[in-house]
Structure formats: C-alpha cells, structure tokens
Amino acid sequence: MGRAPAHRPDQPLPVEEFNRLLVNYLPLIKSKARRHMTTHQPAIDELVQIAALYVLERRDHYDPSLSGFGNWLWYQLMAAWGGRYRRAAKNRARYERPIPVGKDGEQFLEVAVFEDPAFRIDLERVVDKMRRLRDADLLFDLYVNGIPAADFARAWGVSAQAVHQRMERARRRLVRALNGEEILPTDLVSKPHQFVLTHEPVVSAACAALAVDEDEREDRKADRVWFTSTSALSRFVDMMQAAGVVMPTHPVAEGRRPVFAMH
C-alpha cells in the first residue's frame, strides 16, 4: 500500500505572506535548534538552513484553515531534523539527576551546571571528538579522573614537565577539532579511546545519593562516560574552558538542573 498523497489546501497562503511568516519565525527556529539540538553556533546555522529549505519545499502543504503557522512549523522542524531531535531529547532526560535536599529544603551541594540543557549535547560532541585524538586519554585522566601529572611522570619515567607538554599538545588538538580546523594524520589514533571514569570514594550522604543506581551500573559499557560525582563534572568543565570551550560555571540556581551522567 502506497503512502497517501500530501494534503493540499483549497486556499493556500500567498507566497509573499508565507515567506514573511517564515522570516519572522527564523529567530524561533534558531532558538529551538539551540535549546533542543546544540549550542555550537555553526551547527545551529546549519540546522536553521536545513529547516528553512525543508519548510519552503513544503510551502504548498500549509493550510491556514487547519492550524496556525507556528504550530505547523513545529512539526516541520521535527521532520526536518529527523531522528536527531528525538535522540537529543532522549539524551537530555538521561543526563539529568536531581540534587538531594535536606529537611529544610536546602540543597546539599552547589556545583557548576548548564543554564541550557543543550550544553549537555555539546559535552557529548566534545567527548566524541576526544575519542579520536591522540593523547586525549591523558586529558581525560588528568582532568576528569583527577590523576596527578606526577603519577604519569613516575609511571612513564619522564619529568612532570614532559607530561605537561604532552597535555598542552593534546589540548591544542582538541581546540582545532572543536573549531572545525583540519586535523593532521599525526593527531589521530588508530582506534578510538575507550574512556572509563575511575571510582571516586563516597565521602558524604550527598555524594552517595548522586551515585549511579545498581540497575544503571549493570548497563555500563567501557566506552561510556559517567559523571558520578560533582568533582569529576567540575574537572571536565574546567578542562573544556581551558581548551577554549565556553561553558557556564555559576553555582546551582533555582530551576536549574545539573548533569551527573552522560554517555
């Protein structure tokens, strides 16, 4: 059985009026892309272009007698961006964990969080870039797992300065990769890194409440990254800022939610 023909309105909106509405809604399209998809500006611009072209191709399908332009446009955006929108929404829900509060309603912890949930998608993008960059595993262990550079120096039989130089080169590779600059063959690894977050001892009831549940722990894979403590998250954000990625670092405010797990 074939697909039913697309709906064609009896009295379509004039082309000039449709184009005017689309132009007026471009800021909203950009806002939706930033909120639900990514905060990376070049990617936002690309998503807006994809959506605008998709909507223009279906201009004859809009029936003003059935719905308002904004409502119709929303469904077109989800169709234009396809499964990327649904995956982003699903991932955001999986990244969120509430901060425990005391009997007085006060939060146990104040940690760096992201004002917009879309920042979490950028974290996923950063980790994906890191998987393919040489010495990115060193960055991960230094900044996320919190392993001192001196430990690497002793294990490798080199000076701490040599470790820091290697770390700086890895950070420069990451900056180039995130900025879309050309990556040299010497910057890449033959097999993607399999990042594993080392266990951090639980030192308080607050940290215990933030730990990953047993059911989720069973589902872990070696190539997944889990933030099970605020210190690991903070170190990761600090490393991103040091690499030139702009991320908010203000303490938790009312109505904002932190990220304690991502994969």
UniProtKB/TrEMBL annotation:
- Which processes are annotated in GO (biological process)? DNA-templated transcription initiation
The record, for SUPFAM superfamilies, names:
Sigma2 domain of RNA polymerase sigma factors, Sigma3 and sigma4 domains of RNA polymerase sigma factors
An annotated Gene Ontology molecular function:
DNA-binding transcription factor activity
NCBIfam families per the record?
A: sigma70-ECF
Full protein name: Uncharacterized protein
Identify the taxonomic lineage of the organism of origin.
Answer: Bacteria, Pseudomonadati, Pseudomonadota, Alphaproteobacteria, Hyphomicrobiales
